[in-house]
Predict the structure of histidine kinase.
Amino acid sequence: MTELAPSTLPAMNPTVSRSLSIAANTTLDFAISTALDFSAVLQAAQSLSGPIPADGRLRLLTQIVLQISEGDRCALFFPDDQGNWQLQAIATDQAVEIVTAPLADYPRIPSALIQHVIETHHTIMLDPLHETLPIADRYLSEHSIQSLLCLPVLSQGNLVCVLYVQHQSSAGIFTSDHVSILSFLCSQAAISIENDRLYKRSQRALKKAKHSQQLLKKIIDTIPQVIFWKNREFVYLGCSPKFAAMAGVSTPEEICGKTDYDLSWSPAEAASFRAYDRKVMETNQAELHILEPLRQPDGTTLWLETSKVPLCDEQGHVYGVLGSFEDISDRKRAEEIILKKSEELEQTLADLKHAQLQMVKHEKMASLGNLVAGVAHEINNPIGFLNGSIENAQAYAKDLLTHLALYQQHYSQHSEKRSICEVDSIHAHAKEIDLDFLQEDFPALMNAMQAATDRITAISNSLRTFSRADTEYKVMADLTEGIESTLLILKYRLKASEARPAINVIQNHGDLPAIRCFPGQLNQVFMNLLANAIDVFDEAAQQKSFEELEDQAQTITITTTAFAEQNRVEIRIRDNGKGMDAAIKARIFDHLFTTKGVGKGTGLGLAIAHQIITEAHSGALKVTSKPNKGTEFCICLPIDATDTAQDVP
């Protein structure tokens, strides 16, 4: 086995020396045996360099190699674009196979030996006198190859190809002449094969670029945004078809070389477009979501949302601007419609709030009606008594004054003598006015009138307590006093009527501390809850007889409890009326929900009560009820809550 470095190839046989110029400025000197036809070698080299397909060139090269070397198998190896060596052709005197296989994956070649040649660039030729191989190769040991030649082909110092030739049965058939000639032919062929590879690579790159260009064009043509790009002189370099149509030209090609002032925009629009272009290119910063109006020839206005980014080369230098915009006129109109609808909705909401406020005022007026009716009823009795008693008091006073006048007449200090007649007249008048009864009844009458006056004063105080105006901030107040005032105002409704017996009120008041609250609002809550309970009994009177109602006393129970450790108080107002089912209970605090007949309820009383307790006082208002088991409202309030603004109307 002979291993030759590339420098040992020239002048192997001094009998004939020729010089062939190959590649660019590269000359290989080698000896050619007189046994080989030099003209045939040149003809073969010309054939390999001719205009034939790449696969055909590989086939031709393998056939020439086998013919010149007289071997029975040869193979050609080339590096791919990544530098990985691959088998590309393998031939025998019977057939040529064009393949693309990694060196290590092909079993019918001495891959280890070939890899050694690739790494060392040394030619290996099997010599019968030297059979020791530089590297172990399984293929060679298994097939007992008698002759082989593994030739690296260099071009300008670079390994471009490896040729492997073998003969299975004959030894010593490869000579240095074969090495020289095959090296020359493979070098010539390698140049053409490399050109083929470069051509294929350029064709692939061209095809890829063309595909990318077509894909880019398709994207530009189909995306909803309109695309354009300009150079630093604000001259258009290209655009999408949609942009061309909007600019008033037929095709994107027509816009190339024009500026905004050459298109259908107005001068003001063109100046605005250029100002943004200049800003983007000077600052190398994108301008996004620019809202721009664009006047159309028909007088309509398009609204465009434009974004512009700088175009930079590999060094980061700005050479232009890329812009895109989307026609958002429909969106703009939709936004205007939404804005208008929002304004209408706000107005509707304001109207609704106004209507709600009016209904709340109506509810308050209804409460005020209960209050006025109760006050009028409670005051009418003492006033009626006073009206009737005043006449009696006036008569008593007149009789007493007349009687006193008689005394003054007959017992004055100027009268020294009084006749029996005069004394008799005084006694007669005393008997006439029934002085003894008058002395007994007149003080009693005055006491009764004083009691009536006290009653009116108490009612007035209760009215003042109930209707006290709330301030902006919470104040300390006695809840028991508020409940008592409310009951006094509703007392006339608790009394018996022709339809039902009197409603009993049981009060179980605990030792409640004064709490920080809006007293007027809480009095309204007490009024609404107690009036609701009375309404339940009034409705029952329409369905049951007086006797049936007497069998089960109609009762309202008020229980107040303080939980000092929990900083809260509870007020429970319970009736033993008809109760309610779960569906009604779930909606009992909803605005405008009522179970009363038309004209008998606004559906706001309990809703307002819930709002006052939960929002204005940070408390809770809960209801417990079952059909035929009565209803209980539980008010839970903090004892010392933080001051808050008065939010409830």
Notes: The two ends are 113 Å apart (CA to CA).
